[in-house]
Amino acid sequence: MTEATRRERLRADTERDIRATARALLVGQGRDAVTLRAIARELGITAPALYRYYDSREALLRAVCEDICADLDAELTPALRGVSAHDPLGRVFAVCRAFRRWALAHPQEFELVFASPEEESVGLGRRPAQDRFGGVFIHVIGHVLVAPEAFVPTTDEVPAELHDDLVAYRERLRESLAEAGIQVPNGLLELDGVYFILKWWVRLYGHIALEVFGRFPFPLRDAEPLFERMLTELAVESGFPTGTPATPEAPESR
Amino acid sequence: MTEATRRERLRADTERDIRATARALLVGQGRDAVTLRAIARELGITAPALYRYYDSREALLRAVCEDICADLDAELTPALRGVSAHDPLGRVFAVCRAFRRWALAHPQEFELVFASPEEESVGLGRRPAQDRFGGVFIHVIGHVLVAPEAFVPTTDEVPAELHDDLVAYRERLRESLAEAGIQVPNGLLELDGVYFILKWWVRLYGHIALEVFGRFPFPLRDAEPLFERMLTELAVESGFPTGTPATPEAPESR
DNA sequence: TCGCTCGGTGAACGGTGTTTACACAGTTGA
DNA sequence: TCAACTGTGTAAACACCGTTCACCGAGCGA
């Protein structure tokens, strides 16, 4: 297993230390404080040494982005464990609530990952942020979609202009779910469902970004009721059975 | 009227030139390119001279923010002129579409104003971004709320925890509308309506930010159908009469 | 053991925000 | 009219930044 030579292990350790230090600076003092020299200072080395590990500050920030997404993933996934697999709506709610909590607790990281203009993405390779979060979301949604009795999208027709995009995305969803070992019955993953994922994501992101950036049209003392209301409305619109109150799991009082 | 002395006029001119140059740099090369020295260079001045006009780079950026909001205001308001005052839903749609168009055409400005973490706002004075955009939105919403026959919010009860905040905001809305010369009949501005404004804003911002930042869970070729669908769904949920197709006003084909 | 790669250094270049001391035009007041 | 003052600009300097370059030494593989 440990194919790594001593050198490789040392290198991996330093790489991790660098990203961790960068992350700490980001959290503590914001994106602009993530400085090569500050990182080096913290690690007891000089700034040019960092170029042995990352091509540029920008590249390092990208790596930090990936770390953040991995952490987000690691925080969202266990949020599922607390909810029975037979309560799909409860699982979706749990993930949404966990995402909001994470964003409010890590505004700088949220901004870096979710509110920076699209990088040009030099050709091959998709943006990591999308894929990482997509991974988590897909994982959750996968469980929901596989439990057909729980998810009955209304039969609203989908906008015709969106059809091709949705079909393409459905294929990607199928692949991702297959990778995770989830087989999707053939007729199950309707375009309606894919379309609903989009709607959830728009509202989830909208609310959370507004709350993190303090950009509600007026200062809300507590946005949590608004968030909870949004979730239940989404659930109703999505055709979830309204019987289950979806186990609010004692949201810590802010 | 021209109480201003010669000096004051010159000063105002230079201030405008500075902000305009900063704005051009922002648009052309992003926020990090807005450099005191670059601005000074463009103006044929030295950097320290800028400190005669703004206390710091940060203060200048705030001023640029206000300029941007003023421009946004100036672009949204005339979007109303094209739509009859007797078509309130059409007016709301017009403003929403204009906001999206503006954001897509000015991503750097959008990011600066709407996707930066809340500034601490040193005590007095609210954040300008909020108030500026609020101003436009309020102006539009004002017309809608004053035409009661067009706006019939469902009688869903509002989350109890939101009640106090909504009441406070309703008061601010009343004041703002009164300033604009719009008298709101007493029983008209229900809490339901205020709550719906929040819902519109969450979805509008969510969609536009995701589109500008390229953070949809998969690459959409064209997000406009999704946007249009969202608007109509919002209209239905808000209790607007669905008869009027709300005059799509020939959206230019991207 | 020889040589080579890897990870580090220090110096340097050009850029940045910001402060300071200074100069000088234009306005203001006696 | 002439002095004082105010506003606007400058140059120099400080501390910091990303990045490049030449160098160097320890440790590893042959």
Task: Describe the protein in words.
- 2 copies of one chain form a homodimer.
- The radius of gyration of chain A is 21 Å and the shape is globular.
- Chain A has 254 residues and is mainly α.
- The longest helix of chain A is centred in the N-terminal third of the chain and has 25 residues, at 57-81.
- Chain A starts with 5 loop residues before the first helix and ends in a 17-residue tail after the last helix.
- Chain A folds into 2 domains: 1-54, Arc Repressor Mutant, subunit A; 65-237, Tetracycline Repressor, domain 2, CATH 1.10.357.10.
- The first copy, chain A, has helices spanning 6-29, 36-43, 57-81, 88-105, 107-114, 128-146, 163-179, 191-213, 224-237.
- Helices cover 61% and strands 0% of the residues of chain A.
- Chains A and B meet through helix 5, helix 6, helix 7, helix 8 and helix 9 of A and helix 5, helix 6, helix 7, helix 8 and helix 9 of B.
- The structure holds a DNA duplex (30 and 30 nucleotides).
